[in-house]
Design a protein that fits this description.
Blueprint (H helix, E strand, L loop, with lengths): L8 H20 L5 H9 L6 H19 L14 E10 L9 E10 L10 E9 L7 H28 L10
Antiparallel strand pairs: 1-2, 2-3
Helix pairs in contact: 1-2, 1-3
């Protein structure tokens, strides 16, 4: 029953501090905590003891990854057959307020990704609350797919400029 008790002013201060400290790593270097941090950020105004415990556990998880020497390693991928893959997922009405969550990952990978297990490079990722109220699982998945597609288009343009040194002319794929 105590996990459902509201936070005191001091506990809320600590909660905000922990969640704030976790936001940058979740966005920039630790996709494995992105959902947890997004979930914690959404609960600031209604945070309970259980949420503070979850925030501390997420902080401990992030510290374990650092202690284990988490590093970004980009091993060689054969440039001749590379493509981009946009992966996404969503949850329907799983948040405390009935809100829904979306996540995406943009991968640089050999084109054989669809047919076999291959090495990939994670270029971009994110996890966030879906801004609009979803009325079905399908609408959540569609919102997540749209976000993933947009980020994939941006990555495609960015990579073309990096590879060629020329500004990309945006062309609609349809």
């Amino acid at each position: 029953a105590q996990s459902h008790a509201r936070l005191t002013a001091n506990e809320l201060h600590d909660y905000r501090s922990i969640v704030g400290q976790l936001a940058w790593p979740a966005r920039e270097i630790m996709p494995q905590i992105a959902y947890a941090v997004s979930d914690l950020q959404q609960k600031v105004s209604t945070a309970m003891i259980g949420d503070l415990i979850h925030a501390n556990n997420t902080l401990a998880k992030a510290k374990r990854h650092v202690e284990l020497g988490q590093k970004l390693r980009f091993q060689h991928l054969d440039k001749g057959h590379l493509g981009l893959s946009a992966v996404h997922d969503a949850s329907f009405a799983g948040q405390r307020d009935g809100g829904s969550q979306q996540a995406y990952a943009i991968l640089r990978a050999p084109q054989e990704l669809a047919d076999s297990r291959v090495r990939t490079h994670l270029l971009d990722w994110g996890s966030s609350k879906i801004k609009r109220k979803c009325r079905s699982t399908l609408s959540c998945e569609a919102a997540s797919a749209a976000r993933s597609y947009d980020r994939g288009c941006f990555a495609r343009v960015m990579l073309k400029e990096i590879e060629t040194g020329l500004p990309s002319k945006w062309e609609r794929p349809w």
